[in-house]
Amino acid sequence: MDLGIKGKRALVCASSKGLGFGCAEALAEAGVDLVMNARGAEALEAAAADLRARFGVAIETVAADVTTPEGQAQVLKAAEGVDILVTNAGGPPPGMWSDWDRDDFIKALDANMLAPIALMKALLPGMMEKGWGRVVNITSQSVKAPIAVLGLSNSARAGLTGYVAGTARQVAGSGVTINNLQPGIHATDRAISLDTGVANQQGISIEEAKANRCATIPAGRYGTSQEFGATCAFLCSQHAGFIVGQNVLLDGGAVNSTM
Ligand code: NAD
C-alpha cells in the first residue's frame, strides 16, 4: 500500500533501536525524511546510516536526552517544520509503590508525559498552519491494564493519554491527528531488561522468564519492532486522517478485554 507520505519529514525520538527504530525504519521505507534522536551518538549514527543506505532518504541526527529542556531545544532546532512527530523515550524502572518518592515521579513525568507534551506544543502550530500533520506517541499497554511493578509508567503515561484525548480533538479540524500506540511486550532491549529483572527475582533463567511471559500472550510470542513500526507508519499515512485521539493496543491479545 502506498502510504502517500513520500517526501514528508518526521521527527522520531529515541530511535537508535527498539520500537523507535522500528517507527523510523517504516517511515523511511515510505519515503519520509527523518530527524532521528537518541542519547548515544554512536548507535544513533549507525542506525541512521543503515536507513540512509537502505531507503535513500535524508536523515539528520541529534544525540541528546529528549527528557530535558536542553535536549528538547536541540531536537526542536533540527526538527523545525516537520510534518510528523513520533514521541518516545526510555521507560521508568520497575519497583514497589512504597519505594517511589517525589523525585522518582518527577523523572517519570518528565520522560513519559511532559517531554512529549513539550514537543507537541512546539510542533503542532507548524502542522496546523500547513493543514496537515501526524503525531504518534509511544505509550504502553500499562495505560489500559496496569502493570503493578511499573507504577511510575502507569501514572505518567495515563497523564499523557488524558492530555492527548482532549488536545487531539482541538487540532483535528486543522488536518492534524494525534494518536497513541500502546505496546505490549516486544522483543527489544527493554524486554530483555524486564525479563532479567523477573529472572533475578524468581531465581530462574531469562529464557524461562520469557517462556512464562509468552504463555500469558494469546499470540504466544513477543511482538517485533517491524510490526510496531508498520502500525506507526499507517497512523502517519494519508489513509489515517480520520483516526483521532485513539489508543491502539499492540499486545498479541495479552489484555483480556472485549473493547
Ligand atoms: P529500548 O530500550 O529498546 O530502546 C529505547 C530507545 O530510546 C533507544 O534508542 C535509546 O537510546 C532511546 N532513549 C532512551 N531514553 C532516551 C532519552 N532520554 N532521550 C533520547 N533517547 C532515549 O526500548 P523499547 O523497547 O524500544 O521501548 C520504547 C518505549 O516503549 C519505552 O518507553 C518503553 O518503556 C515502552 N514500552 C516498551 C515495551 C516493550 O516490550 N519493548 C512495552 C511497553 C512499553
Rg, Å, rounded: 18 Å
Helix content: 40-55%
Q: Enumerate the distinct ligands.
A: nicotinamide-adenine-dinucleotide
The overall pLDDT average reads 97
Q: Would you identify the regions where 5 or more consecutive residues have pLDDT less than 50?
A: none
Net shape: globular
Topology as H/E string?
EHEHEHEHEHEHHHE
* SS content category: alpha/beta
End-to-end distance, in Å? 27 Å
Question: Could you tell me the number of beta strands?
Answer: 7
Strand order of the largest sheet: 3-2-1-4-5-6-7
- Biggest sheet descriptor: 7 strands, parallel
DSSP strand content = 5-15%
- Determine the number of helices (DSSP H or I, runs of at least 4 residues): 8
Topology:
Layout (H helix, E strand, L loop, with lengths): L8 E4 L5 H12 L3 E6 L2 H15 L3 E5 L5 H10 L5 E4 L14 H29 L2 E6 L12 H21 L4 E8 L5 H14 L3 H9 L10 H11 L11 E4 L9
Parallel strand pairs: 1-2, 1-4, 2-3, 4-5, 5-6, 6-7
Helix pairs in contact: 1-2, 1-8, 4-5, 6-7
Commentary on this structure:
The protein has helices at residues 18-29, 41-55, 69-78, 102-130, 151-171, 189-202, 206-214, 225-235, and strands spanning 9-12, 33-38, 59-63, 84-87, 133-138, 176-183, 247-250. By secondary structure, the protein is of the alpha/beta class. Strands 3-2-1-4-5-6-7 form a seven-stranded parallel sheet, with helices on both faces. Helix 1 (18-29) packs parallel to helix 2, helix 1 packs across helix 8 (225-235) and helix 4 (102-130) runs parallel beside helix 5. The mean pLDDT is 97. The site of nicotinamide-adenine-dinucleotide has 28 residues, from helix 1, strand 2 and helix 6.
